[in-house]
Each structure stands twice: as C-alpha cells, then as structure tokens.
Design brief:
Elements: H1 3-25, H2 29-42
C-alpha cells in the first residue's frame, strides 16, 4: 500500500472514530448501557 492511500485510510478512520464518540456521548444512559452489554456479549 502506498503512503498516500495509507494516510487517507488512517485519517478517514480517525474522523469516523471521533464522530462515533460524539454520537455516543449524546445518547441516553439506557442506550449506552444497552450498547455496552452488546459489546460485552460479543467480546466475552
């Protein structure tokens, strides 16, 4: 993979991650708990 493609992918991932964090922060507590329970089930 050339550097430019790698850099684009990393930058895009970082933007997506930041947006996901902002959205999660605005969720009601019940939804946050539900998502955390789902995560725990998937990851043991």
């Amino acid at each position: 993979m050339d550097f430019e493609l790698w850099l684009f992918a990393v930058k895009r991932l970082a933007q997506t991650y930041e947006m996901a964090r902002e959205i999660y922060a605005q969720l009601p507590e019940e939804e946050k708990q539900r998502l955390q329970e789902e995560y725990k089930k998937m990851n043991g």
